[in-house]
Design goal:
211 residues, alpha/beta, DHBP synthase, six-stranded mixed sheet, five-stranded mixed sheet, 18% strand, globular
Length: 211
Amino acid sequence: MRIIKIDLNHDYSFAIKEAIDILKMGGTIVYPTDTVYGLGCNALDEIAVRHIFDIKNRSSKPLPILARDMKWVEELVSLNDQQRKLANKFWPGKFTLVLPKKDIVPPIVTTGLPTVGIRIADHAFTDKLLGAFGYPLVSTSANVSGEPATGDIDSIIASLSTQPRRPDLVIDAGVLPPSNSSVVIDCSTDKPKVLRVGPSKPEDLLKLLDI
């Protein structure tokens, strides 16, 4: 498990390059996002995705993915007009929308379910990483299953270091600004349903959903 430190306010192109080299080889990385640290790999690489399950010591819970922009989203999931309207309201930002997946998304990502959680982060690092890599990333929180998601990189490193399977690269951007994990909204049915409340207040979500 290689660890490299970066300053998000200065040039970190070296870290982007190293991360891409690892991702192209089917590796796994820990990286900063606009919520908490993410644990990810190429979301279209089934073998790499299996490694994510091993690292988290998880067997059955679906994994969310990050897309760079709406063009990517349209390639990964099916959207009707209502879903597209909600997506444009929420993205980029701390909202994961559960939507019907297309065949390009491997079944292992969703544990066989017909839907996938997807979002566009509001974060310069992830935007540059995705832009340079060219593929969506798994974006599950960088913690062992059962432990809390966090932006504290030291606790993440300490926890993951004890696992039999470890990520190939950890990008240490220091302690991230306080944030919960993203809000999760199931948009796969006629009436959207909030599955997990995160940084946003429930009453604000209801306004955004026009409920």
